[in-house]
Amino acid sequence: MSNNTVHDINVQTKIGYHESVEPRIAELELDNQICFALYDASRAMIRAYGPALEALGLTYPQYLVMLVLWAADGPRSVGELVSALRLDTGTLTPLLKRLAQQGLVARNRDPQDERRVLITLTPPGRELRSRAADVPRQVFGRCDIDAGTTSALRDSLARVTKALAETTPPAGR
Fold first, then answer.
1. Mean pLDDT value of segment 150-156
2. Residue 160 CB: number of other CB atoms within 10 A?
3. Domain of 140?
4. Which of 49, 94, 98, 156 registers the highest number of CB atoms within 10 A of its CB?
């Protein structure tokens, strides 16, 4: 048996597969995929927010819409919300309709441009902000992650997102 064969068998045994099985490529192992780690973390994050948001009568996507509106100093167009949330109108429109049915936002045509729909917080929507102020603390209070780590992680993810957006062709190409 050559040195290479012995080395290959040792490597295969060390990383957990049998010599008679075609060697797997480590880069294709699920647990080695950053995309899976991000997907799994995203799902865990949304689940973690669930109980706090349920108490407010919001889903996670509705909460994100409300965050943008709470930070605004006035009405926001649907286009501005699409841009801020990086959603398409087909996804955002039903969220806005449900928020309007809950009485948290009003949807009105822009008097300056009838093609634009403006989204405005209603008094109950504005009041909900104070009740929601503790949501991040409720979620992260259960984790053993300090503020510096969460900031660094958020900044790293923003850089990854920006890099991917700059290098990924638009859908359909």
1. 91
2. 12
3. 23-167
4. 49
Checking if the pLDDT of 107 tops 90, the result is yes
- The three-class DSSP label of residue 92 is helix
DSSP summary character for residue 98: H
Cα angle 27-152-158, degrees, rounded to a multiple of 5: 65
Q: Phi and psi at residue 133, in whole multiples of 5°?
A: -55, -30
Residue 137's domain is classified under what CATH number?
Answer: 1.10.10.10
Instruction: Tell me the pLDDT of the chain averaged across its residues.
Output: 86
Q: How many domains does the chain have?
A: 1
Question: Is 75 in contact with 120 (CB distance < 8 Å)?
Answer: yes
Residue 38 lies in a domain: yes
DSSP string, 22-84: PPPPGGGSGGG-HHHHHHHHHHHHHHHHHHHHHHHT--HHHHHHHHHHHHSSS-EEHHHHHHH
Length of the chain: 173
